[in-house]
């Protein structure tokens, strides 16, 4: 049951309105979202199984891809099933605890994926710019240390976001105009001061993902500089090919993120449904695209998948 804005009753659950301007037709969005979810989960699962079973793929580069696929699966399952339940069965209620748990998962695992792409860009930088030192720099120990750093960096920085939101008093309504428990969408329902919440959200997001974008940009600048110095066209082509798959993933990941930020900033000129839908797609399209791009462009992974599926050329 929705509470009126002036209700003094303590909120125990929220109602997700999802797309305010598309209530009559939003169920049709499940038509493209459902196959995309199945593709994301299926492709990432096949990729994980292929890497697990193919001994030639037991290398640091592919272990990083395992981390990326696991994060993609978690992000999909955190957001999309609830969105589809809203579209299919109008199941808008979400518990107080469930909402802040979803907020925590989104705020933690999305930056984890961002920094995983940074580590993968560094892996390609070493492979192209310092190929002789690659085996001694990019080791299994390096991947383990990188994974531990990814976890602790994001937990320490993003954990305060849901904690700050959960400590507020929610007594001015319980209808979230969003498909997910995004921090700002939730805290706007509070009858308390939310300036600290907005400030911390802004600083933490730009410190994490902003720095990730800068590091990734510089990595590819160094890679491009090294490739341009190669006198062999074949060597240059091979170097660019090894980085091409990752560059496509990074470009798509951050392009969609930048568009989402612009849509939120220009909210007065853009319908509210646009940034909400972009936010949902950002949790679905990269997970669906990532394993396909790697599977198509990386010969070793393609061979591993074909072997897994017992398909012979």
Automatic annotation (TrEMBL):
Principal location listed in the UniProt entry: membrane
Keywords carried by this UniProt record: Cell membrane, G-protein coupled receptor, Membrane, Olfaction, Receptor, Sensory transduction, Transducer, Transmembrane, Transmembrane helix
Subcellular location(s) per record: Cell membrane; Membrane
Domain G-protein coupled receptors family 1 profile: 43-294
GO terms classed as biological process: cellular response to lipid
GO molecular function, one term: olfactory receptor activity
Gene3D superfamilies: Rhodopsin 7-helix transmembrane proteins (1.20.1070.10)
Topology of this chain in the membrane: Multi-pass membrane protein
Recorded GO CC terms: plasma membrane
Transmembrane parts of this sequence: 29-50, 62-88, 100-122, 142-163, 203-227, 239-263
Pfam families cross-referenced by the UniProt entry: 7tm_4 (PF13853)
Family per similarity comment: Belongs to the G-protein coupled receptor 1 family.
Protein name: Olfactory receptor
Source lineage: Eukaryota, Metazoa, Chordata, Craniata, Vertebrata
Name of the coding gene: LOC110200570
């Amino acid at each position: 049951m929705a509470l009126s804005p002036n209700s003094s009753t303590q909120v125990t659950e929220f109602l997700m309105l999802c797309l305010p301007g598309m209530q009559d037709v939003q169920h049709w969005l499940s038509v493209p979202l459902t196959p995309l979810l199945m593709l994301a989960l299926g492709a990432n699962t096949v990729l994980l199984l292929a890497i697990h079973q193919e001994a030639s793929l037991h290398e640091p580069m592919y272990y990083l891809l395992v981390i990326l696929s696991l994060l993609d699966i978690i992000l999909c399952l955190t957001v999309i099933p609830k969105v589809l339940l809203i579209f299919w069965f109008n199941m808008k209620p979400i518990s107080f605890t469930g909402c802040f748990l979803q907020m925590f998962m989104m705020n933690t695992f999305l930056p984890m994926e961002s920094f995983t792409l940074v580590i993968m860009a560094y892996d390609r930088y070493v492979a192209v710019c310092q190929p002789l030192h690659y085996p001694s720099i990019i080791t299994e120990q390096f991947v383990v240390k990188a994974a531990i750093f990814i976890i602790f960096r994001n937990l320490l920085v993003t954990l305060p976001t849901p904690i700050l939101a959960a400590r507020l008093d929610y007594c001015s309504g319980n209808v979230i105009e969003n498909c997910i428990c995004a921090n700002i969408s939730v805290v706007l329902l509070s009858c308390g001061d939310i300036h600290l919440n907005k400030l911390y959200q802004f600083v933490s997001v730009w410190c994490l993902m902003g720095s990730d974008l800068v590091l990734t940009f510089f990595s590819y600048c160094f890679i491009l500089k090294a490739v341009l110095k190669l006198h062999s066209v074949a060597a240059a082509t091979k170097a660019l090919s090894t980085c091409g798959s990752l560059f496509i993933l990074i470009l798509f990941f951050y392009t969609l993120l930048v568009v989402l930020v612009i849509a939120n900033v220009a909210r007065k000129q853009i319908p509210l449904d646009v940034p909400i839908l972009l936010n949902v797609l950002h949790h679905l399209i990269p997970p669906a695209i990532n394993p396909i791009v790697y599977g198509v462009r990386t010969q070793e992974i393609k061979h591993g998948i074909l072997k897994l599926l017992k398909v012979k050329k």
